[in-house]
């Protein structure tokens, strides 16, 4: 299933601090701190109580948004990368994983080679000025949050609503929608995928997703349109045609109604972000 999310949804800061003494604070955004330099012994403390924590290169810490970030003290030079994730990115990945509720756990000195590798890759790509392209960075960010939610969150998979679609059927029909956004996907065609009658399918889909099939489809088309507007120079009229909108005006009106932005404004925002290479938002 091809998933999309709003690009420019993280920021990376590369820091080097000698003899650090950082006070306890609150994380404004979900943050990951990657140890870049060699091993270091850090004293980590909450509410004035400290413990010794050896940290090796590639280890990282997680601080969920709104959580307390422990105080940290160390001797000598330490280089680390702070990656902050936007709520929109995290929620988009959670939606793709069908996680209706989840809670990230604050953790220190985690050794997860997959996440460590992804954090290093994101850092290098940002520091190099995105030499591999924004799409590459977006894909790494998506993989990072996916791994983070799967391995380091307390998550609850949604219990099927009585009469709702099973997870298998819901995934099957939404994948079909995602792969055929340009098509005229009527209720009969979607219901046939599940083997249900049109009325039964419509009710079950709404119970499972919270919105009717046509509303879900519109949301996915608008999300794909915004992604294409922000990441490509494709003419607006071609994007409208490729995603099943009647014409450019149809796309413009719906985008404005649902997001408050015109296609031109989406592109202008993207261009503004491109002019600030240190921040992706």
Q: What does this entry show, briefly?
A:
The protein has 281 residues and is of the alpha+beta class. Helix content is 45%, strand content 22%.
Q: Key features?
A:
281 residues, alpha+beta, four-stranded antiparallel sheet, disordered N terminus
Radius of gyration: 22 Å
Indicate the proportion of strand residues: 15-25%
End-to-end C-alpha gap: 24 Å
So what's the overall shape? elongated
Q: Determine the structural class based on helices, strands and strand pairing.
A: alpha+beta
CATH topology of the largest domain: Jelly Rolls
What topology does this entry show?
Layout (H helix, E strand, L loop, with lengths): L9 E9 L2 E2 L2 E2 L3 E6 L4 E7 L2 E7 L4 E4 L4 E2 L1 E3 L3 E9 L1 H10 L4 E4 L2 E4 L2 H15 L6 H19 E4 L10 H13 L7 H8 L3 H12 L3 H19 L4 H7 L5 H12 L3 H12 L7
Antiparallel strand pairs: 1-10, 2-9, 3-8, 4-7, 4-10, 5-6, 5-9, 7-12, 11-13
Structural notes for this entry:
By secondary structure, this protein is of the alpha+beta class. It has helices at 87-96, 113-127, 134-152, 167-179, 187-194, 198-209, 213-231, 236-242, 248-259, 263-274, and strands at residues 10-18, 21-22, 25-26, 30-35, 40-46, 49-55, 60-63, 68-69, 71-73, 77-85, 101-104, 107-110, 153-156. It has two domains: 10-16 and 30-156, Jelly Rolls (Sandwich); 167-274, Arc Repressor Mutant, subunit A (Orthogonal Bundle). 45% of the residues lie in helices and 22% in strands. The chain has a five-stranded antiparallel β-sheet with strand order 1-10-4-7-12. Strands 2-9-5-6 form a four-stranded antiparallel β-sheet, with no helix packed on it. Strand 5 (40-46) and strand 6 (49-55) form a beta hairpin. Helix 2 packs antiparallel against helix 3 (134-152), helix 5 crosses helix 6 (198-209) and helix 7 (213-231) crosses helix 10 (263-274). The model is unreliable at 1-7, 157-161 and 277-281 (pLDDT under 50).
